[in-house]
Design brief:
The chain is an alpha/beta fold and about 400 residues long. It is built from 13 helices and eleven strands. The strands form two sheets. It has a nine-stranded mixed β-sheet with strand order 7-6-5-4-3-2-1-8-9. The chain has a two-stranded antiparallel ribbon with strand order 10-11. The model has no long low-confidence stretch (mean pLDDT about 90). The structure holds iron/sulfur cluster (SF4).
């Protein structure tokens, strides 16, 4: 894991402001662990594509399982306490025969619902169902701005056909005078695809999607995928930085919301983006994990990669919705201990920032940054997260 080295001052200052920003966004007033707010449910592990970066393509785990509808029904008693349920795991959600019954159960329980899809089944019937509920949020995955790149990564998908379907969804929504679903494109950033981001900004704008998100390949499960990663502890490649700048400028001109992730990171952030303090993942068996990266293929052990090394992993789950309610699983002692590690970190940082009301010089800022590092070192992220790129802002 030799990518980590002495961090230059400018990077330390940048990451200080990143933490400060995150501190503001995630700040809470509670002195106890927060309640759950967002659930991601793996409705199926079936899929009709063979994407090169997907664990499903490489692992022999449970590949063709549907989430039991009756378990989803009993889980729905907890939905009024949540804000959002996202129906997606390591499979294509539209393949579940009762996906829209599930989505309806969510909306009937005063909760927002969304899903991420490979778009292959987004035909007129499915679009009509989405608008009827309505589903609040639909994200469609793409992996290149031309079909040669997209089709080589998302094997079995054709880019033009896919974007045509997304355009149909946006047009149908607009024609119906509805503001929902919000339609996002999710553009996987790899060495192969990064150069196409500006072109994808153009295409996304043309179609009229609400947002283009460009997530990193942040959970590589083969060494080939690990080598496709464009981010890390070292200096980013100039050519990739240039492409990101070009995409940002273009998106700004076109007033398209574009989200890209940092290419360089140096230490663990306060709480990862998937915020396990309030969010959780339910795998296809009903097992509850802090995030989808903690349960890649049901109950089967798996390998992931971190800084060029294999990380053999056991699924990190804390209870089952088949055996207990969401509220009971959430209070499971081991699960609480996991969240407390993040909570202590947050709280230590909040207390420190409250104690420093003003900084008068660069030296003062340097001292403060050192103090933050010292305090956070006392409250590291949980062991499982230390080899996850999301813990470093990827
Ligand atoms: S750091 Fe990674 S493994 Fe840990 S909760 Fe976040 S996404 Fe999951």
């Amino acid at each position: 894991m030799g990518e980590q080295s002495e961090v230059p001052l400018i990077d330390r200052i940048k990451r200080f402001f990143r933490k400060k920003e995150q501190g503001k966004k995630q700040a809470g007033t509670k002195s106890t662990l927060p309640a759950p707010a967002v659930a991601q449910v793996e409705v199926t592990t079936r899929c009709n594509l063979k994407c090169t970066m997907c664990p499903r393509t490489h692992f022999s785990g449970e590949k063709n399982v549907d989430f039991p509808f009756e378990v989803f029904e009993s889980f729905s008693a907890s939905f009024p306490k949540l804000n959002h349920v996202h129906l997606q795991g390591w499979g294509e959600p539209l393949l579940h025969p009762r996906i829209f019954d599930m989505a309806a159960l969510v909306t009937q329980n005063q909760c927002r619902v969304g899903f991420t899809t490979n778009g292959s089944l987004l035909d007129d019937r499915v679009i009509a169902e989405i608008l009827r509920l309505p589903v609040h949020h639909v994200a469609v995955s793409v992996a290149g701005a031309d079909d040669a790149v997209h089709g080589a990564i998302r094997v079995g998908s054709n880019l033009d056909t896919l974007l045509g379907r997304v355009a149909n969804l946006v047009d149908a929504r607009n024609a119906a005078g509805q503001s929902e679903p919000a339609v996002h494109l999710s553009y996987m950033m790899t060495r192969k695809s990064a150069a196409g981001l500006p072109e994808m900004v153009r295409k996304a704008h043309e179609i009229g999607v609400d947002r283009l998100v460009a997530p990193n390949l942040d959970c590589p499960v083969t060494i080939e995928e690990e080598e496709e990663r464009i981010f890390g502890f070292g200096e980013p490649e100039k050519a990739i930085e240039k492409v990101l700048d070009e995409a940002r400028i273009l998106a700004n001109d076109k007033k398209l919301r574009l989200s890209v992730y940092p290419l360089k990171f140096s230490d663990e952030i306060l709480v990862c983006e998937l915020n396990p303090l309030t969010q959780f993942f339910v795998n296809v068996h009903g097992d509850v994990a802090p995030c989808p990266y903690a349960s890649l293929m049901g109950r089967t052990p798996y390998d992931r990669y971190f800084l060029g090394e294999t990380v053999p992993s056991q699924p990190l789950v804390f209870g089952s919705l088949v055996e207990a309610s969401m509220e009971a699983v959430w209070q499971n002692e081991e699960y609480r201990k996991f969240r407390v590690q993040y909570w202590n970190r947050r709280t230590a940082y909040d207390n420190l920032s409250k104690s420093r009301t003003s900084i008068h010089s660069v030296f003062g800022l340097q001292d403060y940054i050192r103090e933050i590092d010292r305090v956070l070192a006392q409250y590291p992220v949980p062991p499982f997260c230390r080899t996850c790129y999301k813990a470093f802002g990827a």
